[in-house]
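Appendix B, example 12.
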Amino acid sequence: MYTGHREESPAKVISLAYTDTDFKETQGYLANFVMGGRGVLWTDVCGLTDAKLIEKIGTDHHIHPLALEDVLDTQQRSKLEEFDNGLFFIVHHLKVDCTALEIHSEQIALFAGKNFLVSFQEDPDDTLAPVRKRCEDGVGRLRKKGSDYLAYALLDLVVDSYYSVLDELETQALEVETSLHSNGALQTTKARMFALKRVFNEFRHRILPLREAVTRLYRTESDLVEDSTRLYLRDLVDHVRKY
């Protein structure tokens, strides 16, 4: 059962299959959408309110029931769990509402197995679209690598977006500082200052478990992670530690 607060709506599913030389994409869920057994199959699910569809996708890909429960329970902390047939990762895409000074979180779950990856996005706004575009365009090394590198690319996209959150919060902090200098410690300014402190603390609270999860992914002994991908995972670890 989906435990989040998004309104019920039909899930949007995009199925992709690619190799270094070929690319196919279709709207909707196709369990056997592959290229003659070669390449990587990526099933991207936007929206978590259709629990029956998610259960079917999980069954087809042999995703452990406990992992599927965590997909639908959107109060999870960022984490990595290792299963015999895949790696399960939860990360949160964050946005800040500068008017209300609140952080909005979208849970994204990834299950990466041998030659396939399933992503579950809580929101229908398609946070992961830039990586799909890179797959389509054949940009960089993405289509030359396996599902482990695809997982890295998706995590890196989410972690990169945290810079925007910090930039917006720092802009708000500068405005509060300017107001204090010009108008003194008005009650409204002090209230906004404390609200900003709360939001900064919430941001750091969400980042801490992500640091541990990304470090575990870098250090995993799973055969699903190629040695050539570990170089990029190490860079991701350094990236997260900067926040």
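The CA atoms of residues 79 and 213 lie 5 Å apart. The first strand starts at residue 12 and ends at 18.
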